[in-house]
Design goal:
alpha+beta; five-stranded antiparallel beta sheet; 33% strand
Length: 118
């Protein structure tokens, strides 16, 4: 499955970060909310929505449109974000493709658990 990552699209000095994973037939919009001052801000909430390529929201199995990442999944997400924000990733000292794929696979597993993808 082909995908494209669009990471860290945000306003300067904003506490909200938008990430997007674009697949061949849909896209995943990820919203991260941070708390604290800019230098030491901490990720406090992450959620995502699935949209069609023409920006129509897709409903979850329970009828809602967004998924809040909580519990063990949130801890796993924090680890993935740390890898994406790391010095090694930014300076290509580790295999970036593996880190990207782990991030995408995490969201694919979340999609399978929450959505009916036909």
């Amino acid at each position: 499955m082909n995908y494209k990552l669009e990471l860290n699209t945000q306003e300067p000095n904003s506490n909200i970060v938008f990430n997007t994973i674009i697949f061949d037939s849909f896209k995943v919009n990820i919203v991260e909310r941070y708390a604290g001052p800019a230098r030491s801000r901490k990720l406090c909430e992450a959620l995502f929505k699935v949209r069609t390529l023409d920006d129509q929201l897709m409903a979850k199995r329970d009828g809602n449109f967004r998924v809040k990442i909580k519990g063990d999944e949130f801890e796993a997400y924090l680890q993935l974000r740390r890898q994406l924000d790391s010095y090694e990733y930014k300076n290509k000292l580790i295999n970036r493709k593996d880190v990207d794929q782990n991030y995408v696979h995490f969201f694919l597993s979340m999609l399978i658990a929450n959505y009916d993808l036909n």
